[in-house]
Amino acid sequence: MAKCDQGYLCVICGEEVEHIEVSGLYLRYIIGEVYVEELQAQPEHHISCNPVLAQFIVDKDFEPVFVEGPFDKRELDPEEVKERESLVTRGWKRLLEVKNRQLSISEFPLD
Length: 111
Fold this sequence. Notes:
With 111 residues, the chain is an all-alpha fold. It has helices at 24-30, 51-54, 78-101.
């Protein structure tokens, strides 16, 4: 496959990020950590390849992720963890909605 025929490659595992619902870059865009004009310049990664981000998704349809060490959410302030879990989980659900409804990029971010 020609490079131009490939999607974005994960900077962590090197594999193609084939679907938007597994995109760490677009999750970060949806939750406001990346601006639209930065999307082309920011590195892509699978959500699962970034456990520090993935650990905050709390949903029965998402395999729980645990981090050991200083970024383990179990070691952080419980109130901040609760807020981060709410934001990142809402963002992940929005990724699923983006795919299912085929929304335009300007409609991706959370309100």
